[in-house]
Amino acid sequence: MRSIHLICVSSFVACMILSCLLVRANKHSQLPIAPPPSEKWKADQAPKWLMDTLNDEMNSIDAEVRAHSLDKMGSLLGGCYLTIPSLVGFLKDPDAKVRQQAATYLGYYSDKRPLQALQQCLDDTDPMVRVQAAEALYRITGVSENVVPVLVRSLAALKKPDIPSIPEERANWIREYGAGLISIRLLGDTGQGAKSAMNDLVDLWNLQKEKAMGKTLAETIAKIDPERAKELGINPEDFAKPTTGTPPLGAGGRN
Question: Selecting from 1.25.10.10, 1.10.10.400, 1.10.10.10, 3.10.580.10, what CATH number does the domain 36-141 have?
Answer without folding.
Answer: 1.25.10.10
